[in-house]
Amino acid sequence: MEHVELFFKSIFIDNMVFATFLGMCSYLAVSKKVSTAIGLGAAVIFVLGITVPLNWLLDQYILQEGALAWLGPEFASYDLSFLSFIMFIATIATMVQLVEIVVEKFSPALYNSLGIFLPLIAVNCAILGGSLFMQSREIASLGLAFNYGVSSGIGWFLAILAIAAIREKIRYSSVPAPLRGLGITFIITGLMAIGFMSFGGMLTGGDDAVAKEDSAVEVKIEEEKENKTIADNTAQLIQ
Amino acid sequence: MALKEKLHTLKEKYRGTKMAPAFNALHTFLYLPNETTHNGTHIKAADDLKRTMNTVILALVPCLLFGMFNAGYQHYAALGQPVDFLSWDSLYIGIIKVLPLVVVSYGVGLAIEFLFAVIKGHEVEEGYLVTGMLVPLIVPIDLPLWMLAVAVAFGVVIGKEVFGGTGMNILNPALTIRAFLFFAYPTWMSGDKVWVHGAVERAGTADAISGETILGSYAQNQEVLYSLSDMFYGFIPGSIGETSKLLIILGGLFLIFTKVGSWRIMLSTIIGALVMGLIFNGVVDAGWIGETSKFYGLMSVPFWQHLIIGSILFGAVYMATDPVTASQTNKGKWIYGFLIGFISIMIRVFNPAYPEGVFLAILLMNVFAPTIDHYVIQANIKKRMKRLKPNVA
């Protein structure tokens, strides 16, 4: 039950893109075509599925306060959690290199279409975010950590798949010139986040969820306005 | 005739200028243009956008009228001085409360449409006609008019015009407007006080009106005050247009008969809702959930009753079938509708943050409709390639 709950929670409720707005750079850049979006989404699932449990092990046995107790009682007071960022990033970078080698070997077409974005997964905030959320939410076991990694990846995959299909659909829409490209993508993302609000508050229950919802939405709407101004500014810059 | 000629001369006067679309639109909204194309082949068909939109509006008018009567009926019933349903007293409340909502919705929305048409230099599109009618039907009666105006502006600009206008949007504009209202002004959009006229002002005073909603009563394991026939015919508080299931069904049949609405989506939405209801009933029957659970009340509602409480039917008939934002492929429509019904009931039962989830479920499936279409089309391509292959080899 715990597993099922975590699974659905990380796909729909705490969706990486729509709830925390993580991993936006590759989400915006590689979502022009469904086929490449699927490739990148699968890569993200894979990398998250590996790095989160690995980082969980690191966190449990090296980084946490008292994690080094297994070396001997004199190490029990050590707290290496200030190293988590650098350790997590090192793990992620290594794993991404590995994925890159594997993909280049087995699927050159995908490798070519992903281009620069595969190495960029290394700095994709969704990946680091996954590990850091795993740490701060105190995921209890290795199995749950793996579950969390994979399901967050699936959530991100669904998001990029949906927006890629939408962008293919609106390819022939007469979007006002200043909004074409990234501008309209930001707006679509905001609107999609409204759709994903349907799951907000589920499983958590209670009235405090309602209160939280409200403030979250206000932030989101402001964010949308901000996105619009950002898009306008970039459009002006480009011109 | 004088008006027609005046409009015609105005149209001729502004022909070719920036304001031309606005006058063209005024002319064609009211009269049939008698211009024809002179060269090239063209198809003569009566079911243009204007006709389609008018059909939907026609199907909505009974709901609106019923909503107007019901507004007054519920108001007086809650005050403890019941009046006849079809009486001037109840219609009067309807006129002073509901008509302003309609006027503001159309006024603001069409003004923005005209503005965009003039700026972008294309003809005014009829897309807002239906949205403008739907919006007053899905809001609580005491909603302040300025809130409606703000929401309509948001919905039309962000929900539709930035995508290039009618036919290009990805989310249903009417539901975008409702979602905006719901998240921006939650106290005006949900709870047990907003559905009957006058309940908000009286809250906390001696003659307060208690307007416990049906879904609210179920969720709290309380006795429901309304009979099933009341729910079906619509003599219950609720959003203005969604109470009368009978009229919605008639409107739906009308839409199916005129082929404006997709019967696949309506049917599959209802099937989806029934399946989810059955699953919940099964969970209760199997004893997996105790009577103390906060989900027990809504889960134990007989599955078919989910259709006559809340707004699932209204959503299925008028919202999910929006041809722009729904799935375009026939197979996709089945999947799309089924998931709408399924998720609607899931949100209704499972999500304590929202009393009713139909509009969010439809928005969510609007988001995924292009994905569904993509896969249906890919599957078709694959199937036909397979069929082709033996011939090639």
TrEMBL record, chain A:
UniProt keywords, alphabetically: Cell inner membrane, Cell membrane, Ion transport, Membrane, NAD, Sodium, Sodium transport, Translocase, Transmembrane, Transmembrane helix, Transport, Ubiquinone
Principal subcellular localisation of the protein: membrane
Enzyme class, UniProt record, top EC level: translocase
Transmembrane found in the keyword field: yes
GO MF annotation: an example: oxidoreductase activity, acting on NAD(P)H, quinone or similar compound as acceptor
Coiled coil ranges: none
Family that this chain belongs to: Belongs to the NqrDE/RnfAE family.
Assembly and interaction partners: Composed of six subunits; NqrA, NqrB, NqrC, NqrD, NqrE and NqrF.
Purpose: NQR complex catalyzes the reduction of ubiquinone-1 to ubiquinol by two successive reactions, coupled with the transport of Na(+) ions from the cytoplasm to the periplasm. NqrA to NqrE are probably involved in the second step, the conversion of ubisemiquinone to ubiquinol.
Protein name (database record): Na(+)-translocating NADH-quinone reductase subunit E
TrEMBL record, chain B:
Chief place of localization: membrane
NCBIfam families membership: nqrB, PRK05349.1
A family per Pfam: NQR2_RnfD_RnfE
Catalytic activity: a ubiquinone + n Na(+)(in) + NADH + H(+) = a ubiquinol + n Na(+)(out) + NAD(+)
InterPro entries in the record: NqrB, NqrB/RnfD
GO biological process terms held by the UniProt record: respiratory electron transport chain; sodium ion transport; transmembrane transport
Membrane topology term: Multi-pass membrane protein
Name this protein carries in UniProt: Na(+)-translocating NADH-quinone reductase subunit B
Family membership noted in the UniProt record: Belongs to the NqrB/RnfD family.
Keywords of this entry: Cell inner membrane, Cell membrane, Flavoprotein, FMN, Ion transport, Membrane, NAD, Phosphoprotein, Sodium, Sodium transport, Translocase, Transmembrane, Transmembrane helix, Transport, Ubiquinone
Top-level division of the source organism's lineage: Bacteria
EC number of the protein: 7.2.1.1
Function text: NQR complex catalyzes the reduction of ubiquinone-1 to ubiquinol by two successive reactions, coupled with the transport of Na(+) ions from the cytoplasm to the periplasm. NqrA to NqrE are probably involved in the second step, the conversion of ubisemiquinone to ubiquinol.
PANTHER family: ELECTRON TRANSPORT COMPLEX PROTEIN RNFD, NA(+)-TRANSLOCATING NADH-QUINONE REDUCTASE SUBUNIT B
Transmembrane portions of the chain: 56-79, 91-117, 137-158, 232-258, 265-283, 303-321, 333-351, 357-377
